[in-house]
Amino acid sequence: MDLVITHLLDEPVANLIALAGLFFLFVAAVGKISGKVEPDRAGRVICGLLGLILIPVGLMLHAAQDSKGEPRPPKYSGRTGRSDHGATKANNVEAMKRNE
To answer: Distance between CA atoms of 31 and 58, rounded to whole angstroms?
Structure first.
């Protein structure tokens, strides 16, 4: 669970907003999620509207971040011991220390 939270905190805000929009659309379409989430008719409509608002907002924010051209540092994948660019974990730690 800690790994999931760590990865979610590393994600850009635009991706999280779009993901939340998809979740709200899912709740609006399905309605009940194994007894944990049971919105009534008005709740489903509100979830649908919120999802339809959050997805385009997340996509616009994502497009705005891409147009700035700001490079993101490589992330450590955890499984292979290498980042997205093939550097070892030790190299990533050294690079992070240099950036501080």
So the answer is: 23
